[in-house]
Amino acid sequence: MTNEDRIRLSDLNLAEYLRETARWNKGGEVHEKDDLLLTMGLSRFPTTSAAMNLSNAKHDDARDIWERVRSFYRERKTPFCIHIRRHADATLEALCLSEKMTVVSDSPGMITERPLQASMLPAGVEIRRIDSVAGVVDFRAITIASFESLGMPAFVGEKIFATPERLLQPHIDMVAAYDQGLPVSAAMVIHSHSIAGIYWVGTVPAARGRGLGEACVSEVANEALRRGAAFVVLQATKFGAPLYRRMGFEEITRYPWYMRQDK
Questions:
Q1: How far does the chain reach from its first CA to its final CA, in angstroms?
Q2: At 168, is the secondary structure helix, strand, or coil?
Q3: Helices 62-75 and 90-98 meet at what angle, rounded to 10?
Q4: Separation between Cα atoms, residue 238 and residue 263, nearest integer Å
Q5: Which residues of 158-181 are buried (b: 16+ CB within 10 A; e: fewer)?
Q6: Among 111, 149, 161, 254, which residue has the fewest nearby CB atoms (within 10 Å)?
C-alpha cells in the first residue's frame, strides 16, 4: 500500500466518523454531493456541524466549495466547522483563513500498522468492552467530563450521545477503564474502508497521569488489527500527539479544523 493510499483511507475514515456522529441522533443530518460532505448535529456548538471536501481533484474551486458550505449552514441558522486535509485542500484552507475562520486545532493524522504494547494497569483498574446501553452511558459520562476540561461544554456531549443505543453497532468498538468500579477512561474505534479510526479518547481529570488513556487506545487499536484492519488512524490533539508518537503512531498528514461562529 502506498502512502497516498494510506492518506486517502484516513480521509475516508474521518468522513465516516463525521457521518456517524450525525447518525447518533434522530435529528442529525448527512448531505453529500459532488464530493462535499455536510453534516449537522443537534447541538448549536460549531464543531458538531461539520463539512469536509473529499475531492481528489488537483484544482478544486475553493470559492464554490465555501459558498456551498456557507449556504447549507446559513439555511439552518447554525455555526459550523470545516475539516481540512492539508495534503489536498491548500486553496480551501487559504480561503478559510481569508474568511477569518477560527482555527480549532491543527491535528496530526497519525497511523500504526503494528500492534501496540499493552500497558500494565494499576491495581483496581480493569478495561471492559462496551456492549450495552448502560456501558454507552458510562462512556458518555467519561467523555463529557474529560472534554469539558478541554473546552467542550457539557451540553455538547449530552447532545452528541443523547441516544446511546444508536452507538451499539458492529463497526463501532468502545472500551472503558473502570477504577474500583467507577468509569474513568475510554476510547472508541470506527471501522470503515478496510481500516479503523480512533475517536473520543478521554480520561476524567481526577484519573489522569496513570496511563489509562494509553491503555484504552492500545486495547481498541490492537483489537482492530486483530479484526483485520490494514492500519489504525487517529487525529491527535496537541496534548495527545506526544503520547501517540511514543506509543508508535507515525504522522502522515494534518487535519486542521476551522470554525465559523456566525450564522
A1: 42
A2: coil
A3: 60
A4: 28
A5: ebbbbbbebbeeeebbbbbbbbee
A6: 149
The answer to whether the Cα torsion of 156, 159, 163, 168 is positive or negative is negative
For the chain, strand residue ranges (E) read 29-33, 36-40, 50-53, 80-83, 102-112, 125-129, 172-179, 182-192, 195-203, 232-235, 250-260
C-alpha cell at 113: 500498522
Show the DSSP H helices in 104-168 as ranges.
Answer: 133-148, 154-160
> Tell me: the pLDDT tens digits for 30-44?
999 999 999 998 777
- Over the stretch 111-146, which tens digit does the pLDDT of each residue have? 999 999 988 899 999 999 999 999 999 999 999 999
Strand 232-235 to 102-112 pairing: antiparallel
CATH architecture of 3-108+254-260: 3-Layer(aba) Sandwich (3.40)
Q: Where are the domains of the chain?
A: 3-108+254-260, 125-230
Q: Is it true that domain 125-230 has CATH number 3.40.630.10?
A: no
